[in-house]
């Protein structure tokens, strides 16, 4: 008789425990144990419990290859989901094998787990294990299916398949009809008290392993309700018409003021703060260094000489690499729509900036369209104050649109969703890249599903608050994806290509590069441990299918994007994984967490403009300025969203924390510890630097960065 001891850990999430019966079977190289019920005196599998059981076999099983967990009905009780964290099996000779699980097991089924030692497909030779990999992936591909949101968009998760799974329907693996056109919109409706439509059905059937935890859901609701209730009872969410005075905007939030939101309210008019936001605001990716002016922006030396001062000229400053451009060309053909039944406007400005000898970035000239001419005057800091303020506000509106739709939603949320999907569909649980990436995909499918149901749906929040609405968003994101490159995706390359390596006080760049380097060091240790040669990368067909699927589904197979469609060396793999982890964590934090800070003072980030851009100078009054900014209800609806998404709902996991121990070998665990030490040092340096700054930059302080896109 051989006795194997099992130590079973149930997760400590709310309702993680189960009343269902759990049985176990051990499969080894020398045979299989009988299926045995895991049953002790008292309550089994309570939330947070660690319980020990014995599995008896007639003879020893040899090397343990698989652990089968069977979940079956208990008496007359109905199905009770179980979150199993891990199981440790101790063999009769005292050796221990760890089986990471970290998943919800729903319904009555059998789950087969492999020991925690990570293995690529090339490292497996036993037919049993090769077959297990295949079956695991087939099941995942059946569960997580791609769907097309709109032509030109990265593909996304098909949530209706979870409902279909529940009702055991049969269907094709990928739906090819764009869902923006095919959906039955009957579930998309107004709920009492809500200012926009909500697509309820898509929220109901989330697969438990990608669903927000109860804590996170409760925290999101808890953040939303008091803020929306406060605005509702003051009538702000329903009040149409212009703001009567700029100062009234200060009173939208009385208890959600932050140090930065107050700073913005004080300094928003200053040119130096306008320039600062290109470096350390929520959209720090726009600037390109110019060596000559583009013909579409005919700024002359005479125009800017008063600002440049004596001893220099535009040509000299161009030669010195001190002239930068923010070009909003992408907005030129964006459709516009109506809000509160009134036509809204959009434009595609060009904003020229100068890095002065004191190291301060200042706006030099603004042209509010891509076509120069008498109807598109070039606005200058020397113009009258309100003309210049209005021109800058138009640029801030363009910033809002490009930032929210492309820098934020497309390049972090949607791309990270595609990475999550490919990881779930193409890599088995035992694959080292799965173990590495899974923590960086946590809650991404869920938050994007919520965003699609509340923001991107017809008459959802995007239609209610932005000048371009949902159709404009679809245009902007598909055009953005068609131009997005691997260079843009990799921070060091993007900094180099944009020529912004030496601008002083560019904290996003400095902190971002340190975090990039820390991730790169960590990833290269993991990769070199599992991929000793070029051949080991090239022959890993699961890895190649994963990268191929991302290329096809996220980047729509566009070769000119520069994204790889296959990986040939460990170095290429390191860069690719580093970029994915950086964008899922740090990049999202940099472009997400400051939305309330920089947007609460609405004129700094207006979501829509109600008058056409000025074609002449000297006509702007405070009244025409206020009549151009969004109406009261539009402002408040947008600020509600900014408030909500700037705070990560509870149940956070900061960058580099891996409480789910997917890696069980010593080497990767040491690499994780070294990564954590490195991030702690970066945090210390950032906090020290911030002490001497008038406006601290903390968005890339590692403890404040989430591992994944989860809000
Ligand atoms: C006012 C109530 C809205 C409720 C929505 C609840 C949560 C939001 C869920 C996800 C948000 C994700 C992203 C959205 C970002 C950009 C979308 C485009 C917005 C725009 O163009 O206005 O934020 O992290
Ligand atoms: Fe976000």
From TrEMBL:
Annotated positions binding Fe cation: 408, 413, 588, 711
UniProt keywords, alphabetically: Calcium, Cytoplasm, Dioxygenase, Iron, Lipid metabolism, Metal-binding, Oxidoreductase
Give the metabolic or biological pathway: Lipid metabolism; hydroperoxy eicosatetraenoic acid biosynthesis
Marked site, Essential for stabilizing binding to COTL1, at: 104
Residue ranges of every copy of the PLAT domain listed in the record: 2-119
**Cofactor(s) this protein cannot do without:** Fe cation
Matching entries from Pfam families are given as: Lipoxygenase (PF00305), PLAT (PF01477)
**Gene Ontology cellular-component terms listed:** cytoplasm
* GO molecular function annotations of the record: iron ion binding; oxidoreductase activity, acting on single donors with incorporation of molecular oxygen, incorporation of two atoms of oxygen
**Known InterPro entries for this protein?**
LipOase, LipOase_C, LipOase_C_sf, LipOase_CS, LipOase_Fe_BS, LipOase_mml, PLAT/LH2_dom, PLAT/LH2_dom_sf
Q: A Gene Ontology biological process annotation?
A: arachidonate metabolic process
In terms of superkingdom, the source organism counts as: Eukaryota
Q: Please give the family membership noted in the entry.
A: Belongs to the lipoxygenase family.
Name the PANTHER family for this protein: LIPOXYGENASE (PTHR11771)
Name of the protein: Arachidonate lipoxygenase 3
């Amino acid at each position: 008789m051989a006795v194997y001891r099992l130590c079973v850990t149930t997760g400590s999430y709310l309702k993680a425990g189960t009343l269902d019966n759990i049985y176990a079977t051990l499969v080894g190289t020398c045979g299989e144990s009988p299926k045995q019920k895991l049953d002790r005196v008292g309550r089994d599998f309570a939330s947070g419990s660690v319980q020990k059981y014995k599995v008896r076999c007639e003879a020893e099983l040899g090397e343990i290859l698989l652990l089968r967990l069977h979940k079956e009905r208990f008496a007359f009780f109905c199905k009770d989901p179980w979150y199993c964290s891990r199981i440790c099996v101790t063999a009769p000779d005292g050796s221990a094998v760890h089986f990471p699980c970290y998943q919800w097991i729903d319904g009555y089924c059998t789950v087969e787990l492999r020991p925690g030692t990570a293995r690529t497909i090339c490292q497996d030779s036993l037919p049993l294990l090769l077959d297990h990999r295949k079956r695991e992936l087939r099941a995942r591909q059946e569960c997580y299916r791609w769907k097309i949101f709109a032509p030109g968009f990265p593909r996304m998760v098909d949530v209706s398949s979870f409902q279909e799974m529940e009702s055991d329907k049969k269907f094709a693996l990928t739906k090819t009809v764009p869902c923006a056109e095919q959906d039955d919109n009957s579930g998309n409706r107004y709920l009492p008290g809500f200012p926009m439509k909500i697509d309820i059905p898509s929220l109901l059937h989330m697969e438990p392993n990608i669903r927000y935890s109860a804590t996170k859901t409760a925290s999101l609701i808890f953040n939303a309700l008091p803020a929306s209730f406060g605005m509702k009872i003051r009538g702000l969410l329903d009040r149409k018409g212009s703001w009567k005075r700029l100062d009234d905007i200060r009173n939208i939030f009385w208890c959600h003021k932050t140090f930065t939101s107050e700073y913005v309210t004080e300094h928003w008019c200053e040119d130096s703060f306008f320039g600062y936001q290109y470096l350390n605001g929520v959209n720090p990716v726009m600037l390109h260094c110019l060596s000559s002016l583009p013909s579409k922006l005919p700024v002359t030396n005479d125009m800017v000489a008063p600002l440049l001062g004596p001893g220099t000229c535009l040509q000299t400053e161009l030669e010195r690499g001190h002239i930068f451009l923010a070009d909003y060309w992408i907005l030129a053909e964006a459709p516009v729509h109506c809000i509160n039944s009134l036509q809204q406007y959009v434009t595609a400005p060009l904003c020229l900036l100068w890095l002065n000898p004191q190291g301060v970035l200042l706006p030099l000239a603004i042209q509010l369209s891509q076509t120069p001419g008498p109807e598109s005057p070039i606005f200058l800091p020397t113009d009258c104050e309100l003309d210049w303020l209005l021109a800058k506000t138009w640029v801030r509106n363009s910033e809002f649109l490009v930032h929210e739709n492309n820098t934020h939603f497309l390049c972090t949320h949607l791309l990270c969703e595609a990475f999550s999907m490919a990881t779930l569909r193409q890599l088995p649980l035992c694959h080292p890249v799965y173990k590495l990436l899974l923590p960086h995909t946590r809650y991404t499918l869920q938050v994007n599903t919520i965003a699609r149901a509340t923001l991107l749906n017809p008459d959802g929040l995007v239609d209610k608050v932005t000048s371009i609405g949902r159709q404009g968003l679809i245009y902007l994101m598909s055009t953005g994806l068609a131009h997005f490159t691997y260079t843009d995706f990799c921070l060091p390359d993007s900094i180099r290509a944009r020529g912004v390596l030496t601008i002083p006080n560019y904290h996003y760049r400095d902190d971002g590069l340190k975090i990039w380097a820390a991730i790169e060091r960590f990833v290269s240790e993991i990769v070199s441990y599992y991929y000793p040669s070029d051949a080991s990368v090239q022959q890993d067909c699961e890895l190649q299918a994963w990268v191929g699927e991302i290329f096809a589904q996220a980047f729509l197979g566009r070769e000119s994007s520069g994204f790889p469609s296959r990986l040939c060396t460990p170095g290429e793999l390191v860069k690719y994984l580093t970029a994915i982890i950086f964008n899922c964590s740090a990049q999202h934090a940099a472009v997400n967490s400051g939305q309330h800070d920089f947007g609460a003072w609405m004129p700094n980030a207006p979501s829509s403009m109600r008058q056409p851009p000025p074609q002449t100078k000297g006509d702007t009054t405070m009244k025409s300025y206020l009549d151009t900014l969004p109406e009261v209800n539009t402002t408040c609806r947008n600020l509600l969203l900014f408030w909500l998404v700037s705070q990560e709902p509870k149940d956070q996991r900061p960058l580099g924390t891996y409480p789910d121990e997917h890696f069980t070998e010593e080497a990767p665990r040491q690499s994780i510890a070294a990564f954590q030490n490195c991030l702690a040092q970066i945090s210390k340096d950032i906090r020290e630097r911030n002490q001497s700054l008038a406006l601290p930059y903390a968005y890339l302080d590692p403890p404040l960065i989430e591992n994944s896109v989860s809000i």
